[in-house]
Structure formats: C-alpha cells, structure tokens
C-alpha cells in the first residue's frame, strides 16, 4: 500500500506493524518501535504523546492511524531538513532562510522577454559568461542558483531540448534530474519562457565580466550569441557532430530539420541567402 511504501522509504518498515483488524477493514491502529517513536514525536505535542500515557508492549507503542501519519510527517520533515543548504533550528520555518534565494530568482525571472529560437549549438561561439559557467561545472564545481538558471535559460534559448542539455552537460557537476526539471520548466511552445538575464544583471551576480567589452555588441547572452553566429564564416552544430537529437523520441523530432539537411547546413544556407531564420520552421 501507499502507507507501507512511505514507511519503507523512511526506514520505518521494520519498526511499524499493523494491529490486526476485524474482517477486511484496514487497520485502525499500529505499533511503533519505541526508538523511532521517541525520535519522531515530542512531548510538546501534548500529554497524550508522552510515553507514560501510551500503551506499550514488546518494545512498541500503540498509535492510531492518524497518529502514525503525524509520526511519518515528522520523518519527512527531518529528511527535508537534512537536505537544506543551511542550518534550521527546531520549530523554525524555512521561509526567512529562503527569502533571499527566492528574491534572487524572482529578480532573474522578472526580466522575461521573448526571443525567437536560434536553434544552433556552437559552443565556440558562446558568450564568455556561458563558457565560464560550463568550464566551472566541468571542474565539478557546484553552480549557484543564479548561475544554473542563467546557463539553463541560455541553452534552452538557443534551441536545445532537455535531452540535449543533459547530453551536453553529461561531464559536469550538473545532475540530469535537476537539468530536466529546470529546462522543462523553462521551455514552452516557442522555445523559452525565460531567456537568460541581461549582461548587466549577470554582472551584478558576478557571472558576467564584460570580457572584450562585449556589452557593446549586445545587451544579453542570446543577442550576443546570435550576432556571433551570423558573423561566423562556418557554423558546425554540436548536435550534428555528436549525433544528438536525431533519434525517434518526441523531444527531438520537432527540432530535426526536414529533408535530411543538418542544422549546420540549414544555418549556413540561411545566412548565405540573407534570410532570417523562420521561427515557425521545423
């Protein structure tokens, strides 16, 4: 059952046993080993929770189903607390500790603007700030939340799917599950909901250092990258080089050029003809 699975997940499967119920009814009471009971309950919950006031037999405490769910809730809270990047005192809410982090992300998201899909991945032409973040992650350094957001938004903004971003970041400190969660949120039918912040904002976070005075070229990473792609003599798409994005999955078919033409050939052809890439083209 779902309850049994939850108990197993938190290492309580062997410490909790159901009290046999009459007929085919679900158990209404359970017996919890004394150790876990004391670990996940508190006398401050009320006199009824004190061990002296509980039925005790064979090293286990009798609880109702509702009380067991409260015990399980405490175990879940303890698991969450262990995963937080800061210390949290007992009975202290996490809102205050997360406030500054949430404010940072809200500021990044507030700069939402729409940009048409570029749909070419040429790492040699990436903006310096994005190259620096990739190299940092390749050194197995954990990126901060603003750094991770900026990089994921950029990669999605240039037309990469979640699967492609996972493959691109395979040898970095970024984990696949986190990449998928963030990139799937950032994408929409047009390509990206939240392009990376402007160079000015990235500079405030210590991400952009305005190398070669590139802010004169463009005010944001996507515009800078698009300019470099347009000016390049030859553009080879990283996905074409590595055979990425040409599988049978739904996530890649929509991005694959038709007629057997590679992305690199398509971009070169559009630039040679002087035509702007068609955002609606598949």
UniProtKB/TrEMBL annotation:
Residues 235-282 are annotated as: Disordered. Residues 121-236 form the DNA primase large subunit C-terminal domain. GO terms for cellular component: primosome complex. One of its GO terms (molecular function) is 4 iron, 4 sulfur cluster binding. Residues 247-258 have a biased composition (Acidic residues). The keyword Cell wall biogenesis/degradation does not apply. Its cofactor is [4Fe-4S] cluster. GO terms for biological process: DNA replication, synthesis of primer. Residues 236-245, 262-274 have a biased composition (Basic and acidic residues). This is DNA primase. It comes from Halorubrum tibetense.
